[in-house]
Amino acid sequence: MTSTAGRPWLSSYADGVPAEIDVPDGSLVDLLEDSARRFADRAALDFFGSTTSYARLGEQVGRAAAALAGLGVRAGDRVALVLPSCPQHVVAFYAVLRLGAVVVEHNPLYTRAELTTQLADCGAEVAVVWDVTAPAVLAGRDRTSVRTVVAVDLTTALPLTKRLALRLPLPRVRATRAAMTVPAPGALSWDRLVAGAAPLPGNHPRPAAEDTALLQYTGGTTGTPKGAVLSHRNLRANAAQGRAWVPGLRDGEETVYGVLPLFHAYGLTLCLTFSVQVGATLVLFPRFDVDQVLAAVRRRPPTFLPAVPPVYARLADAARERGVDLTTVRYGISGAMSLPPDVVDTWEQVTGGLLVEGYGMTESSPITLGNPVSSARRPGTVGVPFPSTEVRVVDPEDTDRDVEQGTPGELLVRGPQVFSGYWRRPEETAAVLLPGGWLRTGDIVVMSEDGFVTVVDRIKELVITGGFNVYPSEVEDALRALDGVLDAAVVGLRAPDGSEQVAAAVVAEPGAILDPDALRTAAREHLAGYKVPRRVVVVDELPRSVIGKVLRRQVREQLEA
Prior knowledge:
CATH superfamily of the largest domain: ANL, N-terminal domain
CATH topology of the largest domain: Rossmann fold
InterPro entries: AMP-bd_C (IPR025110), AMP-bd_C_sf (IPR045851), AMP-binding_CS (IPR020845), AMP-dep_synth/lig_dom (IPR000873), ANL_N_sf (IPR042099), ATP-dep_AMP-bd_enzyme (IPR050237)
Domain AMP-dependent synthetase/ligase: 32-423
Protein name: Long-chain-fatty-acid--CoA ligase
Distance between the termini: 59 Å
Low-confidence stretches: none
CATH class of the largest domain: Alpha Beta
Pfam families: AMP-binding, AMP-binding_C
Domain AMP-binding enzyme C-terminal: 474-549
Shape: globular
């Protein structure tokens, strides 16, 4: 039996979860090819009912790799993917990697300016983009290195009946088609390019485990985005850690719902790599839509659902109202934001399965901690360290000093999933990667005696007022508990004298009328005086990222304006 000395969390692991994993030696290309052999006839992808087997996926990746090689893509080159979740995204991802090139993921809903900034930074010369986004990429080419744009038409991946239906001369159908695809003059066609390519020769050079696989941009909520450099080994290690964390999974039998965007670190690992590792069928959705998800449940019931709390809440409510059976979902893994205990209760009542919270960041591929997939889970915490992962809780002003157990401090993590640094940003790399391979997370946490971690707040979002530290999450929780408050976001606003003041943006429940002064008065019953917002503003909604996380930087800008 593995000793728990120095790692008290091991005693909370679910049965069968190892303390250490064997990090695979191969690349992500090897991962896909292994699954294509083991699960050749199994559906790898499901897109609105159109399926692609693992054998067919492997074949498509080979042809797409040859097509990209014909465009001049070589090992080490960066290739931009600007795509929603769709079969072409999966094929392009693995095709780029097959050449030893580097995938650079981008949000297809970004503005022209946002895309141009990232494309200029990564230096990609070839971009595979959703045709709806192609004009923004083409328009910014004078400020980037992009010389070739390949446009993807999502509708070509749909089942034949749905493609034919999109040709009907009805206003509603035209609007649906226009939202999915538009002409992209100046761009090459992905479908024609791949269809006209011969399979890549088997002796074409292959990537090694230590080669860079991915540049994943991060930091957009706190400053200029920067590319986290992740190797094949980083990503394979995290997929293997995830597989070990859920010992009840059945290789070749699971159905994973891809409601998370593949261009986000969370969705990329849980859907693009983890799903392939276990030979699961990945059901893809270009965006989260309750109606589309519940329709898919009737067609191909899910067994494993990685998502964010609002998705679980909305699906559980809708399934109850419409009588849709979700009891096939045995496991749910929540991340990216705090998981409320009441969401856990509701979801587990509706499904009979387990819903646990995890923790991670782009720089760690991204998962480092998780709640045990067992009765030992502890709602309200982000769980315990993954296998082969070490953690420390330190004084953020002196990272050589560990704080006393139960005292707030900055979380440091170390493991095979931790990145090598930021793309061409040595100073920013040095600020987060400490000697010994420790990654500064920037999160203030408290660790219990048995190793469970609770996130208190982000260091960069800490508000310092009158010399006191105010954690925004604590104030937000207090505001959400008040009558009539649906949601809240708390930030620090700079005062004329240079100090900070606590400010809050709140959203009212339907039909409720909120009085800012009354809210401040009520908050004093739950918060020390210095924590009570000096200013409360009622807003219609809070700005959120594509996966639903509140963007406090934008909240601050709105309140300052």
